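Newbie here. two chains, one complex. Structure please?
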Amino acid sequence: MNTRLQAVGRYFVGFLEMSLYTNAMGSGEWVGNWTVFYWAWVFSWAPFGGLFVARISRGRTIRQVVATALVGSTVPTTPWFLTMGGSAMFFEWQNIAPMLEMVAEHGVAVSGFPLFGSLPFGGVLSAVFLFLVVNFFITSAGKTD
Amino acid sequence: MSSRSNASRHHRESNDWDSHRVNYPTLVSRRRFDARPYFREGQTVITGLAVAFTASVALSVKKGIARISRFNMGVFAVLTVMTFLLGPPTIS
């Protein structure tokens, strides 16, 4: 709980600084990679994501659409990242689950499984997580119909 | 280490890897990785996905995606709350 509260504080305090961080005294490679990656990510989703949002937004004002897209995606995902990120850091720090080792060996895509697997009812939670990921892909692909 | 001993070590390791899977009835040579035992699971997952994708598309945006998305948000919330309750400091 302390980690999560501290993370929120760090987010608000560092928001401006980190938004404008360019690593001016260094090579800027990391910043460049992330900027270019997420720039391309947004553009790759824009054609069908944009059309889908436009389709389900019929009859609503631009203000309503923008506010829903911003608030509607931020409010549910903030507790998710705080809970999963805080738990993952705790597990790695306390040697409960080899989070970093698993990510280094198999990639970030598997990071949920050592996390949920270390919790009580780990098998059930891992299965629910897999189900959630599969459903995410189904709804993402379904936008194109 | 010479290339011959490297090859020998690799062969030994391959046999070790294979030894975990010798219980599967197989008609192909053990010298090659036998992927057939995994086909059934793979086919089940792919068939399930294909059915779900088709149903989602066939039911249109309002019925198909809206229903799955709403259900997904419920699963998302349950997983977050469960992790919050069962995770640290409960687990420590």
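Moderator note: The longest helix of chain B spans residues 60-86. Chain B touches chain A through 30 residues (CB under 8 Å). Thread marked as resolved.
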